[in-house]
Amino acid sequence: MKVIVFGAGRMGQAIVHDLCIYSSYDITMVDRDVESIENAKKFLERKEIDFIKLDLEKTGDSDVKQLLQRHDIAVSALPYRFNFYLAKQSVKAKTHFLDLGGNHDIVDMELRLMDTARKNNVTVIPDCGLAPGLVSIITHDIVDQMDTVEYVKLRVGGVPVHPKPPFNYQLVFSPEGLINEYVEDAIVLDHEKIVRKKSMTELETLQFPEPFGTMEAFLTSGGISTLPYTYRDRIKYLDYKTVRYPGHCEKFRTLLGLGLAEEKEISIGNTNVVPRIFFAALLSKKLPQHGKDAVLLKVVSRGTKNGELLDLEYTMIDYYDEKNNISAMMRTTGYTTSVITQMIADNVITQRGVFCPENIVPPKIFFDELRKRGINISRRKK
Asked: Are residues 302 and 262 in the same domain?
């Protein structure tokens, strides 16, 4: 089995690290940046991996297709703007494809490849990360456990173990991705209606075990992805909120209110500046990026089973892996994607076409595989 991973950054490294431990596949990593490749080589030392320097934006379609044809499965750990292109080329090359998702419009374009993917005997699964991804499979499990579902409330966030003011946050993925979460509209399912709401609103508090204690959560975009459309007829209310330390939302909302995420150029003296690009650069420079982190997850749901009220709560706290120098965000995003990749390779997933995780990934097997990696999701009836 030959697997090619596009993107040698943190998430790509986590995916390959897990594949090397739990499989014997031949693995190739691709990136356009020499420094990223060198960092990946250092992180993945003593592992037999092929590395290719390649810029997708400067490479012809036929060359990309030929590269894909030499592999059985392709995984994108690149920014989401590359996902549809890679999905389309993978389907043409008859190579299975997965990505981390992050943008509903891109996923919708991928879903339109269904007929061609089936014809070419290919499986395509976008949204394989943490949120969407892991939370999508939890939602699938909730629907399986209940006859009717009143609500599902998804609460997830990556936070530093040792927060530093003023934002009490560290970058665990790209600053551009963070800005997207905070700026683009959140999607909510409300009694069969798909509702768009402004991100960084509907602030609430929730409790986690110490050392975290009281945390805040607020609406953000991206994490819910296709779930409202998949379960429009099964779940009455569904939303997604990002978890942060108290006060984070108000501080960031103030900066966004000043226009720092706007994409239209402004003139400053003799220079034209795009505020969003400038803001992303500032975040990269000013926010910590390498401290110990944790991923907090709490999903609460209510419905009925056999005519009786049923409340289910899923919780998870995953920590930075000091032994392997892998962040909790890398673990919960990269390992999730690796597990789904192995499900395709090992014929646990055999359906062909384009599917999101909630449609195709078996929850019990998935949770069992995460448990092997020390990622424990607790489910309890309340």
From this structure: yes
Using one digit for the tens of pLDDT, what is the confidence trace for 204-216? 999 999 999 999 9
pTM: 0.95
Cα torsion through 326, 327, 329, 332, rounded to 10? 40
Q: Which pair of structure tokens corresponds to residue 344?
A: 């395709």
Q: CATH number of the domain that 155 lies in?
A: 3.30.360.10
> Same domain for 252 and 344?
no
For all residues of the chain together, what is the average pLDDT? 95
Are residue 271 and residue 175 in the same domain, yes or no?
yes
User: 313 and 185, same structural domain?
Assistant: yes
The pLDDT tens digits for 50-87 are 999 999 999 999 999 999 999 999 999 998 899 999 99
The pLDDT, as a whole number, for residue 281 is: 93
pLDDT at 180: 86
Q: Cβ(107)–Cβ(225) under 8 Å?
A: yes
Q: Output 360-364 pairs: Cβ under 8 A, ≥24 positions apart.
A: 360/123, 360/125, 361/125, 361/136, 361/137, 361/140, 363/137, 363/138, 363/140, 363/141, 363/144, 364/141
Q: Show the domain range for 67.
A: 2-128+332-369
Question: 138, 97, 362, 331: which is closest to 235 by C-alpha?
Answer: 138
Let me know whether 93 and 157 are in one domain: no
